UniProtKB/TrEMBL annotation:
Protein's recorded name: Carotenoid biosynthesis protein
Keyword flag Membrane: yes
Species per Swiss-Prot/TrEMBL record: Haloarcula salinisoli
NCBIfam families per UniProt: crt_membr_arch, CruF_Halo
Record has Membrane as a keyword: yes
UniProt KW keywords: Membrane, Transmembrane, Transmembrane helix
Pfam families per the UniProt record, alphabetical: Caroten_synth (PF04240)
Top-level taxon of the source organism: Archaea
Membrane-crossing residue ranges in chain numbering: 30-48, 60-82, 89-109, 129-151, 163-186, 198-217, 238-269
InterPro entries: BABR_hydratase (IPR053540), CruF (IPR017823), CruF-like (IPR007354)
């Protein structure tokens, strides 16, 4: 950019692509991390309550587009670290996630009997959302990054790092699934915790453990720490998650999931990425370091 005019030329290399993506996220940080999830929550609730006409209610294009936008901070953060090893880990995790979801839809194992109630876009084999990695991967990677920040040097211990990340993944799903059931994204045959069977969380222990292990093996941890230091926005996707699903659970008075979303929010605040220091740049009334 020169003299306030955006540079629309094609980037010359991967490093320039990464730099432009970083700049894009920084420039629109508040819109991506706060405005999009709040608008998304209102739109999903209006869809669930029958306040939007069929072409707009649960429109799969809007759902996928909004999700992709909210993922941008995480994508920008990890993109420079996608070497061959990390890419292979993502490919393996993609195949695994499709496979276990397909088994889950057909057999009810390991999550419990469930059906999709909303069109989430193109379906693989007509049974599993093609965009599943977009929905699933960030939940695990956000948990991994949050643990790296909160635990500091303690996260260098493999048992501490993996167990803490897996516990955070389960915490995330304790917020996600009740909200998703409330708005009709999917429904379980057996219901226990706000419409979600306990078997679902046992299933997440399995799928989450595999995902955490693959991320841990595939990504350079030193590189992730370096990017966390460089990218103050790298956990903004988790901010979006708290606002979106915390808000939906609040609307339906799912008080335990709301409290757990608050716990995730407290963890984010503890990372000192978000505060109200007036000496920093003001974004929408809040100040984000």
């Amino acid at each position: 950019m020169a003299d306030g005019v955006a540079d629309w030329s094609m980037p010359d290399n991967r490093h320039e692509v990464a730099a432009r993506l970083d700049a894009l996220v920084r420039e629109h940080r508040f819109t991506i991390a706060v405005v999009f999830p709040l608008v998304g929550a209102v739109t999903l609730l209006a869809s669930a309550e029958g306040l939007l006409p069929p072409p707009l209610a649960f429109n799969p294009f809007f759902v996928l587009f909004g999700t992709l936008v909210m993922r941008l901070p995480l994508v920008a953060g990890v993109a420079p670290l996608l070497d061959r090893k990390a890419t292979l880990a993502l490919v393996a995790l993609t195949l695994y996630s499709y496979g276990i979801e397909l088994v889950g839809v057909r057999t009810g194992w390991p999550y419990g009997e469930f059906t999709y109630g909303v069109d989430l876009g193109p379906m693989l084999f007509g049974e599993v959302p093609l965009g599943l990695p977009v929905f699933f991967f960030p939940l695990v990677l956000n948990a991994y990054l949050l643990v790296l920040l909160l635990f500091g040097e303690q996260a260098e211990s493999t048992p501490v790092r993996l167990l803490a990340t897996l516990a955070t993944v389960i915490l995330v799903d304790l917020v996600l699934d009740p909200g998703a059931v409330a708005i009709g994204f999917w429904a379980y045959e057996n219901q226990a915790f706000y419409g979600v069977p306990w078997s679902n969380y046992l299933g997440w222990l399995l799928s989450g453990a595999v995902a955490v292990l693959l991320f841990d093996l595939g990504f350079d941890r030193a590189g992730l720490r370096r990017r966390l230091a460089e990218c103050e926005f790298m956990l903004d996707d988790l901010v979006s998650f708290v606002l979106l699903w915390g808000g939906i659970n609040l609307f339906y008075a799912n008080w335990i999931p709301v409290a757990l979303a608050g716990l995730l929010g407290a963890g984010l605040l503890k990372t000192e990425r978000f505060d109200f220091d007036l000496s920093e740049t003001r974004l929408g009334g809040a100040v984000w370091r």
